[in-house]
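Why does residue order matter? Because the sequence determines the fold. Keep that principle in mind as you read this record.
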Amino acid sequence: MTADRSQAALLRALAPHVGPCRMLSAESRDWASALFVGARHRLALALEGADAAARAERLAAGLEDCELAMRGGFVADLQAIARIEDGAAMLGIEALTIEEPEAEPVRPGWRRAG
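Structure:
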């Protein structure tokens, strides 16, 4: 999964939790460790609606504890920061997404243990 596809999957996973918003900026880059492959993301969202400020504060306090369902991967780390300025509610999100490894195929002629 590329950083762009991973970002799209992350945004889909966040949508039910964040609610009405507008993307201010988004930056994603591929990431890898010795064991995992994924992407790092930095998002800035302008929350919309009458409850935007309260929602931003609530999300900043608990978004990292939400179960974010991502097809083909998972959110390994997430931080959210709320900023309320002149009545506008903004939410900054930094996240690390990890691709789920594909199952190793069973090769013909090999027997499974057990």
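Residues 1-66 form one domain.
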